[in-house]
Amino acid sequence: MSTYTIEGATGPWEVVIGLEVHAQIVSNAKLFSGAATAFGAEPNTQVSLVDAAMPGMLPVLNEECVRQAVRTGMAIKAQINKWSRFDRKNYFYADLPQGYQISQLYHPIVGEGAIEIEADGVTKTVGVERIHIEQDAGKLMHDQHPTSSYVDLNRSGVALMEIVSRPDMSSPAEAGAYLRKLRAILRYVGSCDGNMEEGSMRADVNVSVRKKGAPFGTRTETKNVNSVRFVMAAIEGEARRQIDVIEEGGTIVQETRLYDPNRNETRSMRSKEDAHDYRYFPDPDLLPLELSDEFLAECAASLPELPDAKIARYREVLGVSAGNTEVVTADVANTRWFEALLREAAAKQGKSEADVAKAASNWLVSDLFGGLNRVGKSIEESPISVAQGAELLALIADGTLSGSLSKQVFEIMLETGDDPAKIVEEKGLKQTSDTGAIEAVIAEVMAANEDKVADYRGGKDKLFGFFVGQTMKAMGGKANPGVVNDLLKKALG
Fold first, then answer.
1. Out of the domains of life, which is the source (predicted)?
2. In terms of domains, do 151 and 21 share one?
3. Contact yes or no for 328/364 (Cβ under 8 A)
């Protein structure tokens, strides 16, 4: 249970949050036409006669969009409705050529489900009320002309899933965790690419405030927020605004608002409409959607291993730490890279994946992700390949490289993209286990520090680390630390 509250002049207030996430369905065609859906195309170059609402044009349902919505519902263990129906949501706007949007108000394809999140140190289940399929509107462009607005219909008819949560979240952190988890699930399933910066996933944020134990307050809806950070900021800003209004004697109006990230505030857009304002009625051009048992079985069989199952397997079977597991499973791209690394590393070392998992996850999270973050690249843009990462891990495992040397090699790999074996050979970075050479250096270190040798032998055991450090320094970090430790123990008595 979240303990998040906002302090007002009259004491603490609780926040009640629900999210309506619009996720663009991955498909090469739109929901009811064969027009393309690629991001970034020139305006009005991906518009069919159906999308432009030319007279006599009839919609034809895209089966792939139905399949992806069903698979998404199954991934959150939701009720799949074998019978659903499309409705017309009627309103006029310049970027809506039909004068209505085809949606599913009364009979959605997916019913109730749930998503488990971790936030504020607590595990919590957030209910999902429904997932329905609908078509997107076009886009008004206000910055192309000093006195006129242009219309781009490329998005008109693009297939969306609207994923509606219950008002179960009570802090910005919970809302952020929910969005990140939902995005991860969508990307694992492959039903949405989750690129919020491109508009293929965006959230309408419902917020209300109340005193502890009081009924729900009047909510507002902040439209089309396109990043997790902005969603969290919009919740806090809107909640504080509502508290100020109420404490000053005003009342909250149920309305639609917009979030301004430059000012970090919401502003009124229009009064909130009810369903009757849109004059919903069944679409007369589309038959009800009926799903066969065979279709549902095919959808279920196509699902990959999902984040929660991966988390359990990584921790319980592979022995990966909780922190590393969280990072690796946060995005499907991370997971694919890690699992490919496991396969390659295990093959190179002649071991099982469980034997190499701990070292591989530590290197991936600490070294590779840390390095990529410094150079501003994603895992897909990594200059280091999976094969090169596995080769580096093998060189560490067989004693060719020490921990410090491996970090030097890694930095060169990150900069040049060269293979680790080549770097080791060219730079002379190979670790030495030559006992004779190491013993000679140890003798020199002890001769130069006779007072400390006497102190160590007199009981100051902590000086052992000093001798290790001096020996490694004298050998340029290339001595095998295990051999150094063993030989020092013998030499110091």
1. Bacteria
2. yes
3. yes
155 closest CA partner among 28, 51, 67: 51
Last residue of a domain, one of 371, 404, 427: 427
Q: Both 116 and 256 in a single domain?
A: yes
Place of tokens 């997971």: 335
Report the alpha-carbon distance of residue 493 to residue 482 in Å, rounded. Answer: 17
Query: Average pLDDT per run of 10 along the chain, which is 493 residues long?
Result: 87 97 97 95 96 95 98 98 97 93 96 94 95 96 92 97 98 97 97 92 97 94 94 96 96 92 88 74 96 98 96 96 94 96 96 96 96 94 96 90 87 94 83 73 86 84 86 78 80 80
Measure the CA–CA gap between 56 and 472, rounded to whole angstroms: 81
**What is the C-alpha separation between 399 and 358, in angstroms, rounded?**
17
pLDDT for position 455: 83
Residue type at position 8? G
Structure tokens at 282: 């069944």
133 touches 160 (CB < 8 A): yes
- Is residue 165 within 8 Å of 20, Cβ to Cβ? yes
Looking at the fold, whether 122 and 235 belong to one and the same domain comes out as yes
Count of CA atoms in the C-beta half-sphere (13 A) of 166: 13
The C-alpha atoms of residue 135 and residue 99 are separated, in whole angstroms, by 13
d(CA 173, CA 178): 9
CA-wise closest residue to 22 among 172, 147, 191: 191
The two structure tokens encoding residue 241: 């605004």
The reported pLDDT for the residue numbered 272 is 62
Rounded-to-integer distance, Cα 445 and Cα 439, Å: 10
pLDDT of residue 433: 63
Dump the DSSP string for 235-293.
HHHHHHHHHHHHHTT-----EEEEEETTTTEEEEEEEPPPGGGGT-EE-TTSPPEE--H
CA distance 70 to 133: 10
Q: Is 99 exposed, middle or buried (0-12, 13-18, 19+ CB in 10 A)?
A: exposed
Contacts of 459 by beta carbon, 8 Å cutoff, 6+ apart: none
Q: Is residue 24 part of a domain?
A: yes
Tokens of 141: 């462009």
* Stated pTM of the model: 0.86
Of the residues 427, 443, 470, the one at which a domain ends: 427
What span, in angstroms and rounded, lies between the C-alpha atoms of 283 and 298? 28
- Contacts of residue 486, defined as CB under 8 A and 6 or more positions apart, other chains included, come to none
For the range 401-408, what are the long-range contacts, defined as Cβ-Cβ under 8 Å and sequence gap of 24 or more? 401/429, 401/430, 401/431, 402/431, 402/477, 402/478, 402/479, 402/480, 402/481, 403/481, 404/472, 404/477, 405/429, 405/430, 405/431, 405/477, 405/478, 407/367, 408/477
